[in-house]
Amino acid sequence: MLEVRNLGKTYRNGVNALSGIDLSIPTGMFGLLGPNGAGKSTLMRTLAAIQLPDCGTIMFDGIDVLADPVALRRRLGYLPQAFGAYPHASCRTMLRHMALLKGLADDAVTARRIDELLELTNLSAHAGRAVATFSGGMRQRFGIAQALLGDPALLILDEPTAGLDPEERMRLYYLLSQLSGDRVVVLSTHIVDDIEQLCTEVAIVNKGKVITRGATATLVQDLAGRIWESPIAATPGSAAMQLSTAFRRGTPVHRYFAESPPNEAFVAAVPSLEDRYFLELKSNQPC
Ligand code: ADP
User: What percent of the chain has pLDDT over 90?
Assistant: First the structure.
């Protein structure tokens, strides 16, 4: 269990990136969903003990993360949002190098572990290739392989699917869906579909605050019978809350939240996590 209490961070430029974050994160795949600038990366870096908050506490399996970051790092796998420059060293050489940095011995056990991870991430056939030549999806899979090197009990994945094409995204979903097991996995994203595909539990964050959290399925089911859609927007002044306007093959689809249809042009729609996401963002605007 990862326990976060009253975490706060204001950057020197005055941006309040985290404001009283409280979260209890159990074993399994936990999603942190929020728009760009919500504070997700700041929170992820803080959970990974590479950035200090101004206040608050983080406990993981008895480790006081802020007081003893070294103890945490022994149990942590971290996939940062940006990996920096990709080296010309081969994928296997990089994994061996990173294993040494994590304190793993350069022996047969580590070599076997690297082989297993290459297999798991579907990179065995590319182990001799320079990471610099990898596609975006392969780089992310390499990033996950390095994060798993020490068989971590806590895995922090900061926007793992950003910039991937649909096929690479699907491949990554498949890989990520196999990872949770006995670990705590925290995955941050601004892509609602990432959460729908992977996470049983989610917290929605905005402007440095957790604005809702719960079981993904429950957050969606609670909207049943209250989501309406129509190709024509409701007239201004309607009591219904407009959630989104999307397009289906060029035709607008306006979605609203209301106890009853805004007018006779509206039909009931099956609620989605995206509806919940927009409802929470719109209901939690600062005054
Ligand atoms: P997200 O990952 O959800 O996009 P971030 O944690 O990156 O959010 O950023 C939250 C807010 O903090 C944003 O307004 C961002 O501009 C600001 N911010 C992030 N890092 C820094 C920094 N090093 N210095 C100043 N402001 C920052």
Answer: 77
* pLDDT band (50, 70, 90) for residue 25: very high
Does the beta carbon of 34 lie inside 6 Å of ligand 1?
Answer: yes
With a 6 Å cutoff on the Cβ, whether 41 touches ligand 1 is yes
CA distance 159 to 170: 15
206 lines ligand 1 (CB under 6 A): no
Q: Ligand 1 center to residue 207 CA distance, Å?
A: 10
Q: Is the CB of 204 under 6 A from ligand 1?
A: no
Max CA distance (Å), the chain: 71
Average pLDDT over residues 110-124: 94
Q: Which two tokens stand for residue 215?
A: 């079981």
Looking at residue 209, what is its pLDDT?
A: 97
**Hey, what are 284's tokens?**
């939690």
Tokens of 121: 């991430």
Ligand 1, from 10, 12, 15: best to mutate by most atoms within 8 Å of Cβ? Answer: 15
Q: Is 11 in the pocket of ligand 1 (CB under 6 A)?
A: yes
Res. 156: pLDDT tops 50: yes
pLDDT of residue 84: 65
Q: Which of 200, 194, 122 is nearest to 159 (CA)?
A: 194
Give the residue-averaged pLDDT of 6-24.
Answer: 97
